[in-house]
What does this fold into?
Amino acid sequence: MATKFTINSQAIADQLHSLAIHLLRKLRREDAEGGLNAPRLSALSVLVFAGPLTLGDLAAAEQVRPPTMTRIVDALVELELAIKTRNASDARSTLIAATPAGRKLLLAARERRVRALTRQIANLAPGEQAALQQAIQTLKKIVAAI
It folds into this structure.
């Protein structure tokens, strides 16, 4: 049975999609200070928060093809933000992990983005902040269901 969508839910979804893209683009401006482009920073984030991964698993997580991820990883390794090691459970593959410098850079970038958001949220009225907090809880439910 097909799911029925109301016009209102479609409009909300369209607005939310557009807003999420614009929010991420604006926050990406904060990343310029770290010196990494968005694909490298995103891959580094996966390595920091998901732990050592094979190239294939990292490519799948980032939804790119392995050759693309190879170029990203090679750049991260050259910058000493990631390291390749032999996979102890499968000698045919390599694990990629963030270095301490990579973790530090990623966490600093995240802190800059959160700080930028914090400044804007602090300017909201208390009722708007409460509404935003409730919306976040609702968004968590939506994300969990996708």
